[in-house]
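Posting for a labmate who doesn't have an account.
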Amino acid sequence: MSTLQNLENSVYKINTAFGYGTGFYSSQNQVIITNFHVISGCQSVSIEDGEKNRFLAKVIYANPGKDIAFLKAEQLPIPMQSVTTNHDTKVSTRDKLLVIGFPYGMPFTVTEGTVSNPQQVIGGNDYIQTDAAINPGNSGGPVINEKGELLGIVTSKFSDADNMGFAIPIERVREELEIIDQLSEDLTIGCPSCNSLIFEKVSYCHNCGNDIEENLFEQSPISDFSKKVEKAIQNLKIDPVLARTGSEYWKFHLGSAEIRMFVYDNNYLFATSPLNELPRKNLAEIYEYIMRTDTGEHRLSISDNQIFLSYRVHISDLYSSYEDQVIKNLAQLAQKADELDNRFICDFGANMTKFSKHHEA
């Protein structure tokens, strides 16, 4: 278990404007490894560590045919230990393995399983088949043994079958890692047909003639609605890429406060921040403060033993003469949240929530 605990700091949640997944750092190769489908449509993404810190990462290599991608994050602290890729261990039926990742976007999770078939053929490629629990969000995460050696990368799970997950075997991962020294800081594509490297936008592979989707070199556009919301995030001096947490959902910290912005009931833009947990004492004073304090367009409330600051607006208001005011109100919610969570601590003895960044309080 100590080996697993040491590896935890080298496994990250990957957040994009279109979804989320898992990635892991390889010290031997100095890149973050994940699935192509996790970062598809992105040139840069955010990676999130266990302390809720997010870092910008550039996609430097993508191979759609092998469903493998490599990322570089310049500001990321190098983990003390990471999975081992240069080993001689062979995978056999009934071997025990561990799947690491962020299923459904939940916090760091480890599931244990057994190798059902080390060479299950699907679509002409071999995969490791396992009975370990694999769910959306696990994609791109490492499959390891108890010694911390990489056995494969989680890639998929049949939606209509239980106890059946798949991983790209380590041998295929090593083949891709061999080209690390040939990569630059710009995106390189691996031809889905012949695996030759493509360094610039083309319509076909000059090596094998296979058609190359030109959008592989392009950032998929976000919606006009998302652009409007991200104006508020930019006004807080935060790169919107660091806030994206799936389709039309944003989550970030301003100081100690966690801020969430998302579409509610298909008609409303909802912004909220879980400020504090209710203390055992001073409840009457807190209730009175919440009822009497004028927070303008924002509302203080209590739910599930937590104090929230929230703001709701109809989506149509972002396409009206109120657009600028809505964007201003969104940014102000974050600023107020960062102020209020400290006030509830100092004045009423409340605690930070589990969503807060305690070390910045």
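Reply:
Got it, the structure tokens are right above this. The two ends are 32 Å apart (CA to CA).
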